C-alpha cells in the first residue's frame, strides 16, 4: 500500500498542474472508485464540474484538492494500487482507468487527471471540509493523526502515547490514530535504524528510545521522499507514471534471509498482523 512518501510524491506532482485550474469535465467509468462517495457518480460529477482548485494537501495516506469557497474538497485514498496521473486531454485510456477529470489551467492549458486502480481498493470522493487545529481537512480524514513530517506534529504527545501502551511498537507505528503515514515498509526500516525490536512493548521503551525512533522515522521518510518513494512494481508511480527507487536503499524490509547491512547477521522475516516483519535479531534485541 502506498505510504506517506508515495502519496506526498503524488501530491507534489499534482500541485503545480492543478492549483489555479478549473474542472471542465468529470467521467466516471467504474463506480467502484467512488466507494467513499455514496451519493454516486452523477452527484460526484455535479459537485466538481465548474469548480476551481485552490490547494493540494495531504495527511497520512489521504490527499485532497481544495475547491474555491473552502467548503469541500476532492479527496483521494489510493488504497493498494491507486494512481493519480497527469495526461494530455486526448490521451488514450490508461489500463485500469476508473475516473478521468478534465481541467483547464491558465498557464498549462488543458490536462486530464486520471485515477487508475488495478485492485479497486482506492477511492475518490467529494467531502466537506472541517476545521482541525487551524487546518481545513475533509471529514473523512478527521480520525487520522498528523504525521512526523507535519510541522504541527507534537513529539511529546507521541512519546507519551507510545509509552502508555502495552502493544508492540510496530503495531503502534501502524496505528493511524497515533501517527499517520507509516506503513509496513517504513516501520521496518525505522525500527531497524533505531535498533528496536518490532515486538518491544511501547511501555518498555524509554523516552530516549522513542525519541531516537522518531528521529529515524523522519530520516527514513525524508530519504524515501527524495528518492521518489518505494516501487516494487508498476503500481507505485508518480503523476508521470515513473517509479520511485527507494527500494534500492532498504536495509531490512524485503531482505529476509539476507545479511544485515550493519552486523552481517541474517535478517529474519516473521508473520505480523497479516503482513511480515523484517528485522535483525542481533541488532534489534527484544528488551
Looking at this protein, list some descriptive labels.
five-stranded antiparallel β-sheet, four-stranded antiparallel β-sheet, Helicase, Ruva Protein, domain 3, 6 helices, 287 residues, N-terminal domain of MutM-like DNA repair proteins, alpha+beta, single chain, 11 strands, elongated
Structural description of this entry:
The chain contains 6 helices and 11 strands. With 287 residues, it is of the alpha+beta class. It has 2 domains: 4-140, N-terminal domain of MutM-like DNA repair proteins (Alpha-Beta Barrel), CATH 3.20.190; 155-279, Helicase, Ruva Protein, domain 3 (Orthogonal Bundle), CATH 1.10.8. The strands form 3 sheets. A 5-stranded antiparallel β-sheet has the order 2-3-4-8-9. Strands 1-6-7-5 form a 4-stranded antiparallel β-sheet, covered by helices on one side. The longest helix has 20 residues, at 207-226. The protein is elongated, with a radius of gyration of 20 Å. Residues 231-237 have low confidence and may be disordered.
Quick rundown:
The chain has six helices and eleven strands.
Amino acid at each position: 500500500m502506498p505510504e506517506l512518501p508515495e502519496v506526498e510524491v503524488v501530491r507534489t506532482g499534482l500541485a503545480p498542474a492543478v492549483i489555479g485550474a478549473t474542472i471542465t469535465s468529470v467521467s466516471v467509468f467504474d463506480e467502484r472508485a467512488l466507494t467513499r462517495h455514496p451519493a454516486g457518480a452523477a452527484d460526484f460529477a455535479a459537485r466538481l464540474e465548474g469548480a476551481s482548485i485552490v490547494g493540494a494537501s495531504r495527511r497520512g495516506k489521504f490527499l485532497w484538492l481544495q475547491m474555491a469557497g473552502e467548503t469541500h474538497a476532492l479527496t483521494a485514498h489510493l488504497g493498494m494500487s491507486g494512481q493519480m496521473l497527469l495526461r494530455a486531454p486526448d490521451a488514450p485510456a490508461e489500463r485500469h482507468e476508473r475516473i478521468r477529470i478534465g481541467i483547464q489551467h491558465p498557464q498549462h492549458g488543458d490536462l486530464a487527471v486520471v485515477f487508475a486502480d488495478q485492485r479497486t481498493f482506492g477511492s475518490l470522493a467529494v467531502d466537506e471540509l472541517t476545521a482541525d487545529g487551524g487546518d481545513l481537512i475533509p471529514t473523512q480524514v478527521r480520525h487520522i493523526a498528523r504525521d512526523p513530517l507535519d510541522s504541527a506534529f507534537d513529539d511529546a504527545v507521541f512519546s507519551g502515547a507510545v509509552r502508555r501502551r502495552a502493544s508492540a511498537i510496530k503495531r503502534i507505528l501502524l496505528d493511524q490514530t497515533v501517527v499517520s503515514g507509516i506503513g509496513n515498509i517504513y516501520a521496518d526500516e525505522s525500527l531497524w535504524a533505531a535498533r528496536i525490536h518490532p515486538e518491544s512493548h511501547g511501555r518498555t521503551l524509554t523516552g530516549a528510545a522513542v525519541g531516537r525512533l522518531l528521529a529515524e522515522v523522519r530520516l527514513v521518510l525524508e530519504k524515501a521522499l527524495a528518492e521518489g518513494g518505494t516501487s516494487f512494481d508498476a503500481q507505485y508511480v508518480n503523476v508521470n507514471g515513473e517509479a520511485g527507487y527507494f527500494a534500492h536503499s532498504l536495509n531490512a524490509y524485503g531482505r529476509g534471509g539476507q545479511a544485515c547491512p550493519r552486523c552481517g547477521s541474517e535478517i529474519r522475516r516473521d508473520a505480523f498482523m497479516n503482513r511480515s516483519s523484517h528485522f535483525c535479531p542481533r541488532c534489534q534485541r527484544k528488551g
